Design the sequence.
């Protein structure tokens, strides 16, 4: 039987952030809330099973699972979400086979999502109306919109391979539009799209142009969002100035000092 050994050696807080995405203090809060929610779920499952006549042994009895400590489960999930390894690699870091690594990821993942929801830290996935979007912003007046692109294992199905091939060095990726505030809190995670989709296409698919999504907001985007001012008036859009194209009349194009200051 696999026992699971915590091989996630962490030397300092910087390495902890690199491997799990959080510092020690918020990690302790996550673990504590995770433990409370897990105990409550186990108690509820026990009572329901007893009522059905399917169980008599109290929670905590019997053979222990691979991960009996909440901190191990939380670290495993956070490590996967931060680094996106294959389950083969995940298992090697935590002393598990890829099958057990898969099982021990998805079981606590659902609990951790509940924890983040209870703490008010779970980003909104979809906003169908302007009112829902305003609620997701939680009072933020300045937002930053960007797309995250993450690698994934090459699909075995040829059609899926073609759909998810980003065109960048034969990588297969998935994308999400992320909206954050100025203190780096993620407010919205957006739907997941295959890698070939353009960043601005993702945004227009989730936020219908012509609707007052961004009224009274200061919105920062990168050069991949050309056309946003036209599609989403009268929002205050901050987009960098693009350097002019090289031509015979302008062989060394450059930005003016004022444009450079604006881009900063």
Sequence:
């Amino acid at each position: 039987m696999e026992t699971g050994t915590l091989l996630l050696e962490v030397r300092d807080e910087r390495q902890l952030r690199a491997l799990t995405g959080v510092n020690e203090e918020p990690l302790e809060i996550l673990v504590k809330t995770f433990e409370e929610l897990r105990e409550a779920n186990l108690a509820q499952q026990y009572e329901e099973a007893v009522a059905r006549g399917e169980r008599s042994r109290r929670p905590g009895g019997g053979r222990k699972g691979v991960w009996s400590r909440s901190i191990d489960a939380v670290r495993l999930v956070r490590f996967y979400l931060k680094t996106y390894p294959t389950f083969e690699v995940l298992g090697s870091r935590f002393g598990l086979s890829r099958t057990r690594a898969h099982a021990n990821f998805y079981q606590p993942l659902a609990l951790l999502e509940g924890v983040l929801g209870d703490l008010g830290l779970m980003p909104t996935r979809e906003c169908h109306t302007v009112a829902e979007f305003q609620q997701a912003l939680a009072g933020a007046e300045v937002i930053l919109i960007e797309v995250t692109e993450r690698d994934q294992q090459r699909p075995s199905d040829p059609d899926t391979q073609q759909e998810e091939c980003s065109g960048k060095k034969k990588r297969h990726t998935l994308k999400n539009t992320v909206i954050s505030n100025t203190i780096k809190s993620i407010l919205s995670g957006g739907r997941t799209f295959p890698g070939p989709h353009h960043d601005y296409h993702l945004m227009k698919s989730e936020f219908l142009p012509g609707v007052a999504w961004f009224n009274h907001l200061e919105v920062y985007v990168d050069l991949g969002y050309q056309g946003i001012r036209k599609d989403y008036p009268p929002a205050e859009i901050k987009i960098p100035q693009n350097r002019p194209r090289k031509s015979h009349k302008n062989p060394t194009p450059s930005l003016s000092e004022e444009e450079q200051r604006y881009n900063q």
User: Anything to note?
Assistant: The chain is about 45% helix and 10% strand. The chain has two domains: 13-118, 130-238. Residues 13-118 form one domain. The longest helix spans residues 24-51.
